[in-house]
Amino acid sequence: MFRCVLTLKWRFVNLGERNLTVEASKNYKTRHVPLSDYAIELLRSLPRVTGCEYVFALQLTKDRCRDPWGPFYAGRGAVGLDWVGFHDFRHFRASRWIMRGMDLRTVQELLGHRDITTTMRCAHFAPFPIGDK
Q1: How far is the CA of 113 from the CAs of 92, 94, 99, in angstroms?
Q2: What single string gives the DSSP state of each residue in the chain?
Q3: In the chain, how many domains are there?
Q4: How far apart are CA 40 and CA 51, in angstroms?
Q5: pLDDT by residue (tens digit) across 23-57?
Q6: Taking the model in full, what pTM does it have?
């Protein structure tokens, strides 16, 4: 996911259709990821860097857009969350979808997993609520 976000280009964002396209995923399948109202609002608010096709670009250097994750890593250290990595957000999102009642197959499709067990691991899925054991 980190690579997908880092390399996301404006041409793969379709605000009208409310999705983004992931073409070069790890399993070599193209998929369309739906965007929430918040994500659309956020994307609309992002400044576009002239001459840069990347969505998350902070500034343009001679030949490429600068890595936008420096501020993320600095910020997590400033609040004492050095252990948090960008990939943790993927696990968090998967867990939240499951807790809110989204079926496991839909989560699998959204995450682009070939195997449902990968999705179960990513979502920290338990087959029953802890208090029910």
Answers
A1: 16, 12, 19
A2: -HHHHHT-BGGGEETTTTEEEE-S-TTS--EEEE--HHHHHHHHHSPPPTT--BSS-S-B-SSSBPPTTHHHHHHHHHTT-TT--HHHHHHHHHHHHHHTT--HHHHHHHHT-SSHHHHHHHTT--SS-GGG-
A3: 2
A4: 22
A5: 766 667 788 888 889 889 989 988 887 778 888 77
A6: 0.57
The residue among 30, 46, 67 that closes a domain is 67
Task: Please check the confidence at residue 83 and state whether its pLDDT lies above 60.
Answer: yes
Dihedral of CA atoms 76, 25, 57, 66 in degrees, nearest 10, equals 80
Distance (Å, rounded) from C-alpha 65 to C-alpha 78? 25
Looking up residue 58, the CATH number of its domain turns out to be 1.10.443.10
Cβ contacts of 76 within 8 Å, gap of 6 or more: 82, 84
